[in-house]
Amino acid sequence: MTLKPHNLHVYNTLTRRREKFEPLSPPHVGMYVCGPTVYGDAHLGHAKSYISFDCIVRYLRHLGYDVTYVQNITDVGHLTDDADAGEDKVEKAARAKKVHPMEIAEQYTRRYFEDMDALNVLRPDISPRASGHVIEQIEHTKRLIERGHAYEANGSVYFDVASWPAYGRLSGRSVEEMQAGARVEVSAEKRHPADFALWKRAEQGHIMQWPSPWGAGYPGWHIECTVMGQKYLGETLDIHGGGIENQFPHHEDEIAQAEAATGKPFVRYWLHNNMVTVAGKKMGKSLGNFLTLRDAFEKWDPMVIRLFILQSHYRSPTDFSPEALEAARAGYERLAGAAAAIAKAATGAPDSDADPKVAQLLQDARKRFAEAMDDDFNTPLALSTLFDLARESNRLVAAGGLGKGSLEAFAAALAELAGGVLGLSFEATATGAADTQIATGLVQILIQMRAEARKAKDFKQADAIRNRLADAGILLEDTPDGTTWRMK
Ligand SMILES: [Zn+2]
After folding, report:
1. How far is the CA of 270 from the centre of ligand 1 (A)?
2. Where would I find the beta strands (DSSP E) of 221-306?
């Protein structure tokens, strides 16, 4: 595919400027985005990040770029505390459920991909797991020690920020400020409060551990992204994305580790998405005010959630409220309705070429759409051009007389811009949602029949219902609040 002429500019957090997008070796683009830590279900905050970067990948490919998209899975090393203290998040969740940490990681990795599939988020080209790259993380750590940028203390290894004057460039913090703002309980092993762990000694009872030149331990969280990004995309990445809350310390640390080892720039463009808020406060697992995607899907079609996210720019916060979701539903129905009306009119319409007026209208719409996306992926503006297009097509379809060529041209533009670039699908979700609704209703009837059988002490019948549902892949779970079900 050849590269289309374009005028894409992106806001680079590192330089705090809008810059013309020029990858290192076009048409190739190497893009890395920090993936989820898999210890719980994804919530709306995750949807904001991964839908935003999905649209960015889709638009780059639409322009003709050959994108390699890497998004990691953090299954080890992400601690509950940013200052290298606290527990490993995955291991903590495993202890609560009395299972192996890898079982937690596996379960939530699968569920994460199911949720993203429902949102029509394309899967990354590579989804490397941190636990599968421990050797590379040890090698990188050794290299930093050899170069005088890291030191071992008591079986752990820390990056020495004093050895790296550029530390703080991304977040705009100075090392002195970090010293002044440091909390009292900074580890005595660290030479400077801002030093961060590359490798942590495994304490007694820590399950996820590997042998290393410094004894048994596990990698720090930040080093996995540096190592896996460079392993699959080379020493310099074109784009590194992630949530704004990870600018410091996570991304700052990634830069220091990478550049101190290679002496080359780590990333050309740093892109950060803003967060989802609830009444102005960040939505987050640790804050307890989050709505999981699975819960949200019960109320709203995943495509409505996708449109809701795209209605705000990726660098602006998205404030969640049920009313805002209802407004997004109305918007989605407007677009889906226009697509359905076009498809309906096209069956039986006389064969014809596209009307020159329609061709001109679509050309203008494509131009405005491209201008919006070229402006740092302005999806709210791109969406508004699609709403205009839907209004025009509704008007023309209602007036009648459009030939097949014009109708097909409308349909193709919607499929390319709304479907291909913004990832909004119309037909599949309408039937999918109807099917899900029917299936849910049927399972509820069977659960009720089983409850009635048990009440009548007909346990044979009750067990038969349960077993036959299990054969069909539906597991019932009896809880104090009643019986729930899930797919096997
Ligand atoms: Zn990361």
Report:
1. 12
2. 237-243, 267-273, 276-278, 281-282
